[in-house]
Specification:
The complex is a heterodimer of chains A (785) and B (225).
Chain A lengths: L1 H14 L1 H29 L11 E10 L2 E5 L6 H8 L3 E16 L2 E10 L3 H4 L4 E3 L11 E5 H8 L8 E4 L3 E9 L12 E4 H8 L12 E6 L5 H8 L2 H5 L6 E6 L8 E3 L2 E4 L1 H29 L1 H13 L4 H38 L10 H27 L3 H5 L12 H31 L10 E5 L8 H10 L3 E7 L8 E3 L2 E3 L10 E5 L4 H5 L3 E4 L13 E5 H7 L8 E4 L2 E9 L14 E4 L7 E6 L5 H15 L8 E2 H6 L3 H35 L1 H9 L4 H35 L10 H28 L2 H6 L2
Helix pairs in contact in A: 1-11, 2-9, 2-11, 2-20, 9-12, 9-14, 9-20, 11-12, 14-20, 14-22, 14-23, 15-18, 20-23, 22-23
Chain B lengths: L1 E11 L4 E12 L4 E5 L6 H8 L7 E6 L2 E2 L5 H11 E4 L11 H11 L4 H14 L15 H13 L5 E5 L7 H16 L3 E5 L3 H4 L4 E6 L2 E7 L2
Parallel strand pairs in B: 3-8, 3-9, 6-7, 7-8
Antiparallel strand pairs in B: 1-2, 1-4, 4-5, 9-10
Helix pairs in contact in B: 3-4, 3-5, 4-5, 5-6
Classes of the chains: A alpha+beta (785), B alpha/beta (225).
Chain lengths: 785, 225
């Protein structure tokens, strides 16, 4: 019996090569897309779930009221660890982590690597196994370092590195005491090496005991049997008990929620990554469904061809059940071929997908679970796409089909029509979303930044740069590499600090107004290409009192309520600062948000970055070459490192760009798969109506008349799909845009464009078959009776 | 073998109700060869479908081999049908994707005959129908006469007690038609009961008895000599 089924399936597939190709290609693309998304989802939900003690692992969080709202954040005071260790016997281990960046020197090799400072407990709390070294002792000494396998290879090649010495930042020598297995692709931790916390205290030259400075992450492992609720009741008061700060609650965020549920609103978890995962899972399901719908539609459209077979089988004794089994078997077989093709597609597109999603996903070919899941996936797809056709085909009554009187009903609401509408509805929603996402992206990208990004470069002040700053600045200018240089506290594209500790004349008593803080030593407006609206730039060389001068931006002037800002006094932390100028608002942080009030302080403050405007008379390559020579001369131990501000600024759009690319991809795929199905349906429709077309032509219908008659039916379905899709897409995109203060309005043209695109694509798809049918010689079709 | 009494069948559409069989009664004995004749729309095919258990009557009784089956469900009817009845159609109704051999083998698969037995029996019957040399061809590669031989082979491979033939020569030229009628006569002589619907007086003459239908009722019975 099975052999008989397989035989007839195989022959059917071969006989209708066109439809087999459409079916398999459509299903394969759908399966591949769904599989890629599911790979991604699987990776996301497995984040940090591999830690053996994940059920007992927590991150310390703070909760407090600002501007009338309850905020939660995951950075803590450094001192919190010792308080946790001392006073809470329920806690087994505590470790802190903090990022660090050092120049590693090994002979002639110089590498800047990013790592973490951490406490020794880290190695036993988390499941990051050491290949070499003892996790209990590896970080005990201040000059110990643990390298990941990759880092060890980068530095030493294939040598055995245990016990070897590395020079760090040209000041200290560290001994390698452990090699850690490379971090898996599903952890939030990201470091190339681990250093002892004690070394950070040495660099900082103090053991900080301030409960008000939240700058590190603290992780805790509870003893078995302690519940989250119980420990949270205990640690809530830890800050109050140990300091003067009275308005901060502390709580623990469990490892099972770190990655997926990390968005807090008003003190409660409201979601986070999980929302994207849900959305993507739905999209995966939809794409697979759309592909399955193709299969359903094509199989049932071809039912007239299969009807006779069903009738005969029933006459000679087949029951409905065995026919259902036969047709399901067919669809599973097709799904199987599609599955193989899908696997090839996934393998081929995985690196592109990884680029797009910033992941390192791999197909686990050696995992039996993977194959088991793949087979179930194929089976699921086969049953999903085959169940409706199987029920439909197996219910034919032999008396009718064998007499040749069988004709499909042409109902107003046939399931096939509903399915086509569903497909195009999804496609149109994706198209509209894509257009709006791209519009929003463009809208934000075209927003005036307020300064001139081109040819603006910055370099972080490492090693001796700060010490030799004046020399470096002068040589950058005299060598002709740069036309202006300014030392600042942060890159032009990042807001590193903010404070509400400013007072001025006329400030409301008790008002908490937050300002972005930024520092410059001078030449700020010239280097950045900023517009001075009032007053002048800070220039301590010309005006020695300018070491305590400040610039305001327009937003600051407005919020401070100054009519004549220049000459006003602003007090920060007891220091009196004089306003010497006002600059036009410029975007420091998010291009989607309004510009925040900002105060730019003069030379008597701290610095971290040098900005320099390259000389437009030289080529960029030449400028960089000159600049490199300058930096090498005054900071020889460090490699020359530079960042173009326009590149960094472009990174602000990375998320939206990714969303846009993904939406385009989804829209393209759904419309492609839908059209594939539409093409197949049109083909069958043309075949089924061949006699009608013949008669019409004999009676004088034109080719145009016939082909538009055939196309009209399908366009109606696309039209209905559009009507349903429009409000859905509007609502979805309206909700998405609410996340941006600076957002594009949704215009009617988006919908008009989407409608036009869909209609044109479907006309092209359908009319090919319609015109072919209309052009056929009626004599042939009528004779075939 | 067959006894029907007061059999009724209606067809309803939205506007009209058509009576296909109007209190029809008849009997067919084992070993008989009966022809059913009548103009288009007289109910011949409806009767044949009900006799073949492909359709059920709206009223009346149908006793097959002493068992009342008028109210059998689909499963029981299918079971009874596949062991007892073979069908021959005007348009042959062979499955295009299966070879001659596989088409004939089909009923044996559904009655659960073992693979080795199937080969033996199919070969036997193909030999008898003189189409053994075509066993690996597909229906489209055969002439009409050959296709009908395959269809008859398929109808008899399960050794049914009854063969129902619906205008078996309707799509054939007279020479091929005669061959088919000879085949049916042979089968009948070997003991198979045959009920045949036909428009052809010529074909009807091969039978023992002609039942003439009009408007769903028996109007005349001729006994052939």
């Amino acid at each position: 019996m099975l052999k008989n089924y397989l035989k007839i399936t195989w022959r059917n597939l071969l006989k209708n090569k066109g439809f087999t190709a459409i079916n398999i290609a459509g299903l394969a693309i759908g399966m591949a897309s769904a599989a890629l998304i599911l790979f991604w989802v699987q990776n996301e939900v497995s984040y940090d779930q591999f830690h053996q003690d994940k059920d007992r692992l927590y991150q310390m969080y703070n909760r407090s009221v600002f501007d009338g709202k309850l905020w939660c954040w995951g950075t803590t005071p450094k001192i919190m660890r010792s308080a946790l260790k001392q006073d809470y016997p329920q806690i087994e281990q505590v470790a802190r982590t903090n990022k660090c960046n050092f120049l590693f020197t090994l002979g002639e090799k110089h590498l800047t690597l990013a790592g973490n400072y951490t406490d020794p407990d880290f190695l036993t709390m988390f499941s990051f196994p050491l290949i070499k070294g003892n996790p209990k002792t590896a970080l005990n000494d201040m000059k110990n370092i643990i390298l990941t396998e990759k880092t060890a290879k980068k530095l030493f090649g294939d040598e055995d590195v245990m016990g070897k010495t590395i020079k760090i930042d040209s000041v200290d020598y560290f001994t390698v005491t452990g090699i850690m297995k490379d971090l898996p692709n599903n952890t939030q931790f990201d470091f190339e090496y681990l250093m002892p916390w004690t070394y950070m205290e040495k660099v900082d030259k103090q053991v900080e005991k301030n409960w008000g400075n939240n700058s590190v992450q603290t992780w805790a492992l509870l003893k078995p049997g302690i519940t989250e609720a119980a420990i949270n009741a205990q640690v809530k008061d830890i800050t109050r008990k140990n300091s003067e700060i009275k308005d901060i609650d502390v709580f623990m965020h469990p490892a099972t929620k770190w990655h997926l549920y990390s968005k807090f609103e008003n003190g409660k978890i409201v979601g986070g990554r999980i929302e994207t995962i849900r959305l993507f899972s739905i999209i995966a399901g939809l794409i697979l469904l759309i592909a399955c719908i193709n299969f359903m539609n094509l199989s049932t459209a071809r039912s007239e061809k299969r009807a006779k077979e069903v009738g005969i089988r029933k006459v000679v004794g087949a029951l409905k059940g065995s026919l259902i089994a036969q047709f399901l078997g067919e669809s599973i077989m097709i799904a199987f071929f599609a599955g193989i093709l899908a696997l090839i597609i996934v393998q081929l597109s995985l690196s592109g997908f990884n680029n797009l999603t910033d992941k390192h996903l791999i197909i686990p070919y050696d995992s039996p679970v993977f194959w088991l899941i793949s087979l179930s996936f194929i089976l699921f797809t086969g049953v999903l796409s085959g169940s409706y056709p199987a029920l439909y085909l197996s219910s034919f009554v032999p008396v009718k089909v064998l007499k040749g009187t069988f004709k499909e009903p042409n109902a107003v609401f046939s399931p096939r029509k509903i399915l086509v509408v569903l497909q195009f509805m999804c496609a149109i929603v994706f198209i509209i979303s894509t257009i709006i996402i791209k519009e929003q992206l463009e809208y934000a990208q075209n927003r005036d930044t307020g300064y001139k990004k081109n040819n603006l470069v910055y370099t972080f002040m490492t090693g001796n740069i700060e010490k030799n700053y004046r020399l470096i600045r002068n040589e950058l200018l005299t060598s002709g590499a740069a036309v202006a240089v300014s030392k600042t506290s942060a890159p032009m594209t990042e807001g590193w600090s903010d404070t509400w500790d400013y007072t001025w004349q006329g400030k409301q008593e008790g008002a908490k107004i937050d300002f972005n803080m930024y520092n410059t030593d001078g030449s700020f407006t010239k280097t950045m290409g900023l517009k001075v609206i009032e007053g002048r730039d800070i220039d301590a060389e010309k005006y020695p009192s300018d070491s305590l001068a400040v610039l305001l931006n327009e937003a600051s002037v407005k919020i401070m309520g100054f009519k004549h800002p220049v000459g006003q006094i602003v007090v920060n932390n007891g220091t009196k600062l004089t306003v010497v100028g006002v600059v036009k608002d410029f975007i420091l942080q998010s291009p989607y948000e309004p510009v925040r009030p900002m105060i730019i302080q003069g030379p008597k403050s701290w610095f971290a970055v040098i900005h320099y405007k390259l000389n437009e008379k030289n080529t960029t390559a030449k400028n960089l070459q000159l600049a490199e020579a300058v930096f090498k001369k005054f900071n020889s131990e460090y490699p020359f490192d530079y960042h173009f501000v326009d590149d960094e600024y472009a990174l602000k759009f990375k998320d939206e760009q990714r969303t846009g690319t993904l939406a385009t991809l989804f829209a393209g795929l759904t419309i492609f798969i839908s059209c594939l199905g539409l093409f197949g349906l049109a083909t069958y429709m043309a075949q089924n109506r061949i006699k009608e077309i013949g008669v019409r032509k004999v009676l004088g219908a034109s080719v145009f008349g016939v082909s538009s008659m055939l196309s009209k039916d399908f366009l109606k379905l696309v039209g209905i799909a559009f009507l349903i899709a429009t409000p859905l897409a509007w609502w979805g995109m309206y909700t998405w845009l609410q996340g941006y203060t600076y957002r594009v309005p949704i215009s009617i043209w988006v919908f008009v464009t989407a409608a036009a695109v869909t209609v044109i694509i479907s006309i092209i798809t359908v009319s090919f078959q319609a015109i072919k049918a209309a052009l056929a010689n009626p004599v042939k079709s009528l004779r075939s009776e | 073998m067959i006894k029907i009494t007061n059999l009724e069948k209606f067809y309803r559409t939205e506007e009209v109700e058509t009576i296909a069989l109007n209190k029809l009664s008849m009997e067919v004995n084992t070993g008989e060869f009966v022809a059913i004749m009548g103009p288009s729309g007289c109910g011949k095919s409806t009767l044949l479908n009900i006799l073949g258990m492909l359709d059920d009557p709206d009223a009346g009784s149908y006793v097959f081999n002493g068992v009342e089956i008028a109210h059998f469900n689909e499963r029981k009817r299918a079971d009874l049908r596949k062991h007892n009845i073979g069908f021959v159609f005007q348009s042959f109704n062979l499955i295009d994707e299966l070879t001659v051999f596989e088409n004939v083998e089909l009923p044996l698969i559904y009655t659960g005959v073992s693979s080795a037995d199937r080969v033996k029996r199919v070969e036997e019957v193909l030999d008898k129908m003189q189409i053994m040399h075509r066993r690996n061809h597909y229906p489209q590669q055969l002439s009409g006469g050959q296709q009908q031989r395959v269809a008859i082979a398929r109808a008899v491979v399960n050794k049914p007690k009854l063969i129902l033939a619906d205008e078996p020569t309707g799509n054939l030229d007279s020479s091929n038609g005669n061959d088919v009628m000879e085949l049916l006569t042979d089968l009948n002589e070997q003991g198979t009961t045959i009920i045949m619907v036909t428009h052809s007086e010529h074909d009807a003459r091969y039978s023992h008895r002609i039942i003439r239908l009009l408007d769903g009722q028996t109007v005349m019975e001729n006994i052939m000599v």
